Amino acid sequence: MPTKTPVTTEEVSAAAQRLGFTIPPDHEEEYLALLAKTDAQCELILNTPDYKPVPDYERYPRTDVYLPEKKDNPLRAWAWRCHAGDNIEGGNKLLSGKTVVLKDTVCMAGVPLLFGTDAFENYTPDVDATIVSRVLENGGHILGKAACENFSHGATSSSSPFGPVENPYAKGFTTGGSSSGCGALVGSGEADMAIGGDQGGSIRIPASFCGIVGLKPTFGLVPYTGVLTSDAGLDHVGPMTKTVLDCATLLQAIAGYDNIDDRQLGAPKYEDVPKYKELLLKSREVPMGRKKIGILTEALNGKLVAGSVKRLVLRAAEQFRGLGMTVDEVSIPIFSLTPALIHIVNKLASGGTRQGRQVGRRGLYLNDYWEHLLPWDQSKYDKAKYFVTGTAMSCEYAWHKYPTAYGRAINLTRQLRDEFDKLFEQYDAIIMPTCPQPPRRHIPAHAGPLGWADHAPGTSSITAAFNLTGHPSLSIPVGFASPMPDDILSEEDKSIKLPVGMMIVGKPFDEMGIMTVADVLERSMDWKTVVDSE
Fold first, then answer.
1. First-to-last CA distance in the chain?
2. Phi, psi (degrees; rounded to nearest 5) at 489
3. Where in the sequence is the domain holding 245, given as residue range(s)?
4. pLDDT score recorded for residue 361
5. Hey, is 519 helix, strand or coil?
6. Spatial distance between the Cα atoms of 83 and 80, rounded to a whole number of angstroms
7. Percent of the chain as helix, strand, coil, to the nearest 5
């Protein structure tokens, strides 16, 4: 008599069928026994209490947690409101007096997390992300969660269940995504600082479109612990602020190894993080004439780059020359492959991640989130919107038909990284447009999957390169431009002026270098007075 097990023969057959494996009849009982062992080990692990960081509610209480009403959320940029800060008064800390918002991918214990979607409900984390703990420990006051795109996927700001997040400079235009609410709240002055997330440009695109500073740090410099993932090889979190000095201040507060996140190879210990704020202030006493800046021709002259964007970036380059810096055009031909590389890496990786297949990492797994989401069904896909369903379909299709495409893309990504590293042997920073075009109008409500995919083409075609290579890159505003011709729908629209950002890229862990260059530009040029007039 075979031993009774909780595994059925139907489950064994189904597993084999999914693998395309036929079980020989004389091995059926043996595979049943093997799966029973796996079942028992799963039960044992799942009945063992999870091991997670414990938040300090007493020192850092969360109060007044609520969903804002429409009248109090005109840009639709808030996901949840709250108040959280140090319960002990006094002390001149790094972030004292600063208000901070978090992208709604960041876990904050006791505050609901939406992940930009209504595909699941009632998920309230019981852990604080490392960056949340560090903001609170450094005296920051957290005002709540900023809306993001559905499952944090998309470079526009059209997919939130609350409706499109509005650009603070022109209603009807995108803030960029997926850290859309962060860009709107800092750009409109509702918060001093935000922490955004970036897998293909999601910090820098909203920074460019909302007229603020946004830094994607070196891969691993800032711990991703306690933040919902898209793909562990692309995940970054970083500052979104009004000024470069604020960016340096927030980066100093949140950077450094947390002894959990295994993305952080090469990152300094928390106590050894550079004093970015102090160093930036000291750098203002040093002449910048010896700096060498490269302008990446493939990014500047791309076929999608608007003339207004190119002119504003070249004007900023002339500003550097006027300050005594050397500015040369430089070229990396493989950079033009960026859209294809990020398409393969992002879709084939994040598509699997969203199915709950997270393996190969040694950090904190947010298992309670996956319990809320899985399994997927038609209703959840319908609510997730087309960026998510398109990625899911592309993932399944490509892994089946092109099983080595992901590996080839990763190898070519190393080539892209090595080419940039060679340039950094000669240049202190490389500059280029953050995005090819000014902010576009929101995706039309009637658009389908292809309409979503083709709207605002190339938005992340420049930024995504540095998610792939891991180099630090910062977007800084350099002026205003008119909307693209297709977005001018009335005579009044001709008077609309939208922010344009320039990206400054540096060698790994040289955040100080690119912030110094950005700070010089910011102090020597009032970007709000610069308007492209052609």
1. 86
2. -105, -10
3. 62-529
4. 86
5. helix
6. 10
7. 40, 15, 45
- Residues 87, 24 share a domain: no
CB 454 within 8 A of CB 144: no
Q: What is the DSSP letter of 234?
A: T
Where b means 16+ CB within 10 Å and e means fewer, 110-121 reads bbbbbbbbebbe
Shared-domain flag, residues 39 and 109: no
Q: State the chain's mean pLDDT as an integer.
A: 96
Q: What are the tens digits of pLDDT across the range 215-225?
A: 999 999 999 99
Could you tell me if 13 and 138 lie in one domain?
no
pTM of the model: 0.96
Residue keyed to tokens 């350099």? 478
User: 108, 83, 86: which is closest to 96 by C-alpha?
Assistant: 86
- Residues with catalytic annotation? 103, 178, 202
User: What 3-state DSSP class applies to 340?
Assistant: helix
- Taking 90 as the threshold, does the pLDDT of residue 88 lie above it? no
> Which residues neighbour 319 within 8 Å (Cβ) at sequence distance 6 or greater?
521, 524, 525
Same domain, 40 and 162: no
DSSP annotation of 290:
T
Question: By C-alpha distance, which of 99, 110, 83 is closest to 140?
Answer: 99
> How many structural domains are present in the chain?
2
> Can you tell me whether residue 332 is helix, strand or coil?
coil
Going through 391-484 in order, the beta strands assigned E by DSSP cover 429-433, 473-481
pLDDT given at position 186: 99
Task: Please write the tens of the pLDDT for every residue from 274-319.
Answer: 999 999 999 999 988 889 999 999 999 999 999 999 999 999 999 9
* CA torsion through residues 54, 58, 60, 61, sign: positive
Residue reference for tokens 């040093």:
286
Q: Note whether 178 and 281 are same-domain residues.
A: yes
> Taking residues 20-41, what's their average pLDDT?
96
Q: CATH number, domain at 184?
A: 3.90.1300.10
